[in-house]
Amino acid sequence: MPDFTFSTNEGMPFSNMDIRDKSRKLIINFFSTGCEHCQYMAKQYVKNADKFKDINLLMVTISDSSEVVKFKSDYHLDSLPNLVLLKDRKFKFEKLFGTAMVPSFFIYKNNKLMKEIIGETKIENLLTEDAVPGNR
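User: That's the sequence. What structure does it adopt?
Assistant: Structure tokens below.
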């Protein structure tokens, strides 16, 4: 996993070193608040919250802070205790992860990339353990 530092919506730095319980699967989801596919995925996270209880989920965006607050509220993302919303204020995501397409998903286990998915996907594809190369 690349070393990264993004910001919370409140402006506090958050890096890969801040991830709770590194033994858990980690899903990094690059999204935009205005993206219909991203909105669908947010609904699916909440609808399937029980399936994400043992997974760390980071949602990273370049969207405006006020839009992120509204997105978090509209889609009830506070109900997901392992979710952290982050801002890419310095536009580094593409350099670090190889794409800035929304939505994009990078699934890690023990700091190793297991799966990369570009575009909307089914929740089941985020939950499987099999290593699958990206679909770019």
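The chain has a mean pLDDT of 92.
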